[in-house]
Design a protein that fits this description.
Layout: H1 3-13, H2 15-27, H3 40-56, H4 58-65, H5 68-73, H6 79-109, H7 116-138, H8 144-161, H9 173-178, H10 185-195, H11 199-220
């Protein structure tokens, strides 16, 4: 069995995984929305996706805690291959979550609400960013429970002030300017630009998300024994 398939198996063994990946995205469809904007569930999906990515990063953290990465370093398997296999497996599951939500949105809201292909690509870009963010965050802790306890609070606040769990358009302009340093802001901004049918705005948001992805990967991919 390859590391990629083993990582998939590890993630799917977590009891809450299927709930987060397949069930909760459907619940978001029923959240009331404001008129004249994209459904509120579209932005709240970013909050769900963030915590899903954090959960899916758990096997890598536990491998480090249990010193498995030390044994990997002494084996013919490179650290880069081990880490990339885990990340690709997690990203595949997050992409499935995005696909489930987008397909369900088409069926529930109709095909003319927005460009669903662009929406899916924006979600996948965001998924890559939050997965690398989770990797970087967990690299600073020796305990997954401690890491999760702090991240659950900080992550929720990030999503709130960046416009994912609260409409970005209702935030004061000064706050909108300040929160541009937060990576989660660029999903909210991308959705806002998608609602305005601004292709360049969506593209810019996606590019910034991938830039953040690269930065967090550089931070989180260093070996820490």
């Amino acid at each position: 069995m390859t590391i990629f398939l083993f990582a998939l198996q590890q993630n799917l063994k977590q009891r809450i995984s299927l709930l987060l990946l397949l069930v909760l995205p459907l619940v978001l469809l029923f959240i009331p929305s404001m008129t004249g904007s994209l459904p509120m569930g579209f932005s709240l999906f970013g909050l769900l996706n963030l915590f899903s990515a954090f959960l899916l990063s758990r096997p890598v953290v536990e491998d480090r805690m249990q010193k498995i990465v030390v044994r990997i370093a002494a084996s013919p398997i490179s650290h880069a291959y081990y880490l990339s296999s885990h990340l690709l497996a997690s990203l595949l599951l997050l992409a499935v979550q995005c696909l489930v939500f987008v397909v369900a949105s088409i069926l529930y809201f109709g095909p003319h609400v927005t460009n669903y292909l662009v929406l899916f690509l924006l979600y996948v870009s965001y998924s890559a960013m939050v997965l690398s963010l989770s990797l970087a965050w967990n690299s600073m802790f020796r305990s997954y429970n401690t890491s999760f306890a702090l991240f659950s609070g900080i992550g929720s606040i990030m999503c709130l002030v960046s416009g994912l769990s609260f409409p970005l358009s209702l935030l004061p302009q000064s706050v909108q300017t300040m929160v541009r340093i937060l990576p989660t802001y660029y999903l909210a901004n991308g959705l806002l630009m998608l609602g305005k049918q601004s292709g360049s705005g969506v593209l810019l948001s996606a590019v910034v998300l991938w830039v953040f992805t690269g930065i967090f990967l550089l931070i989180g991919s260093k070996r820490r024994f």
